[in-house]
Write a structure and sequence with these properties.
By secondary structure, the chain is α+β, with helices and mostly antiparallel strands. It has two domains: 209 residues, PmbA/TldD fold (2-Layer Sandwich), CATH 3.30.2290; 233 residues, no CATH class. Strands 9, 16, 17, 18, 19, 20, 21, 22 and 27 form a nine-stranded mixed β-sheet that branches. Strands 1, 2, 3, 4, 5, 6, 7 and 8 form an eight-stranded mixed β-sheet that branches. Strand 2 and strand 3 form a beta hairpin. Helix 1 packs parallel to helix 2. The longest helix is centred in the N-terminal third of the chain and has 16 residues. 45% of the residues are buried.
Length: 458
């Protein structure tokens, strides 16, 4: 196959050409209230070609490997016909590598029947709990092998397995309906979703408890975010603004995201790091064959970096960071996060509570929306804080505000970093891309809270 790819790239009048080919096997199981709603296993293969001529792209996708040279020629012809502003493309050293992953409990070792039995166990726990009316379980996994070759001489094979699970318990009493959920996943290790029976029982209990929980009084509050919600916040509200394709396409955002600008206190550090072993957003090379990196976005409260593909790095005259990713072969790579998180600080959770006379502790997520620097997030769980102690459970709350003002209002950062492996990222029609996000507990002053609402996005 390698010779077939390299031969297909030869002899074209183009500045740069690449081929990305993938083979995948995917499983999805959806259960609703004990009934099997969907179960399927799919096998697919296909690839795409990107060609650059005089700074403009041509793109062709394919499902068969025959006539590959003709498809490369078509991508080159499309690039010649393309209009718009041309771009320089930074040169890169060729890479030859084969990247594999091994797990003690690989998803490929688990039969479909065994996966279904585990989901049935979780479903029985939910439906057997008091006041639970219905449940939903959504499981998916994919085993993917991606081969990348370009005209610079790179040849890379990477194994990219992924597992994601979402469990939801829905409680009902009269006209009241409440829900609680659990999202998690892994980069191919099935043991990450085993042994969750206690956590599943807890989400059912919490859903029932929310039926009688009071609402929070709307307005500004001092709040503490748990690592899950804080991770979603840093991913959605700030991380997307650090993706350089957004920056160069939006003059307003470019002026806001000026390197060297202060966005928080000296204790605030935000990182995107695709090199951390074992996380869903980790990889060795991105989908342009660029080596993954650890990128500081905010350091000591100051904006110091952003995420790049080779194209955006050329446009803004910065260095590529290895963040060009595509959800599958039907799409060209675009700038995406990997594992984005707030670095731990010096405070423990008890110390953060002791500094609050009256406030709210918010945990987990339902979803949310962002619009440039403005955000709205729905928390999955909330508790009153009085005189430094956790008190009664509240109905789910909504957090809203300006991300840059909010970053500046973070006055304490915990020492308990935790990475969230659930969910998936959506952008430009490519969803859900495997990512991870995380944070320690963080305390925020003057955060606007209201009653629950909103639609799942993250």
């Amino acid at each position: 196959m390698r010779n077939q790819f390299t031969d297909a790239l030869k002899g074209h009048n183009a500045d740069y050409v690449e081929i990305r080919f993938e083979e995948s096997e995917a499983t999805r199981v959806i259960c609703r209230s004990g009934s099997l709603e969907e179960v399927n296993r799919t096998y697919s293969s296909g690839g795409n070609i990107r060609a650059l001529v005089k700074g403009r792209w041509g793109f062709v996708s394919f499902n068969r490997l025959d006539k590959l040279r003709e498809r490369v020629a078509l991508a080159v012809d499309e690039a010649r016909l393309a209009s718009g502003e041309g771009l320089g493309f930074p040169a890169a050293e060729p890479v030859v590598d084969i990247v594999t992953q091994e797990f003690e409990r690989s998803l490929t070792d688990i039969t479909l029947a065994a996966k279904k039995r585990l989901l049935d166990e979780y479903n029985s726990i939910i439906l057997g709990s008091s006041k639970i009316q219905s449940s939903r379980i959504d499981y998916r996994d994919v085993k993917r092998k991606v081969t990348f070759v370009n005209s610079e001489g790179s040849y890379i094979e990477q194994s990219k397995p992924d597992i994601a699970l979402r469990l939801t318990a829905i409680a009902c009493q009269g006209n009241e309906v409440q829900q609680a959920g659990l999202s998690l996943g892994s980069n191919g290790d099935f043991s990450a979703i085993e042994g969750l029976h206690g956590q599943v029982q807890e989400i059912a209990r919490r859903a029932a408890s929310l039926l009688s929980a009071p609402h929070v009084k709307g307005g500004e509050h001092t709040i503490i975010l748990d690592p899950v919600l804080a991770g979603v916040f840093v991913h959605e509200a700030f991380g997307h603004l650090s993706e350089a394709d957004f920056v160069y396409q939006n003059k307003q955002l470019y002026n806001i995201m000026t390197l060297g600008r202060t966005f928080g206190a000296k204790h605030l550090n935000i990182i995107d790091d695709a090199t951390i072993p074992g996380l869903r957003g980790s990889y060795k090379y991105d989908d342009e064959g660029v080596l993954a990196t650890r990128t500081s976005l905010i350091q000591d409260g100051i904006l110091v970096g952003r995420l790049h593909s080779r194209e955006t790095a050329a446009r803004i005259r910065e260095k590529p960071t290895g963040n060009a990713r595509a959800i599958n072969y039907l799409f060209p790579p675009i700038v995406r996060m990997s594992n984005t998180f707030i670095e731990p600080g010096a405070s423990c959770f008890k110390e953060m509570l002791e500094g609050i006379k009256e406030g709210v502790y918010v945990k987990d997520w339902y979803g949310g929306t962002t619009s440039l620097e403005m955000f709205t997030f729905s928390a999955g769980e909330a508790y009153m804080i009085r005189d430094g102690k956790l008190e009664e459970m509240l109905r789910p709350v909504v957090l809203t505000g300006n991300v840059f003002v909010t970053l500046g209002n973070i006055d304490a950062i915990g020492n308990d970093l935790n990475m969230n492996q659930g969910g998936g990222c959506g952008k430009a029609g490519q969803s859900p891309l495997p990512v991870s996000n995380g944070s320690p507990h963080i305390r925020i002053r003057h955060c606007l809270l209201g009653g629950a609402g909103g639609k799942n996005k993250y």
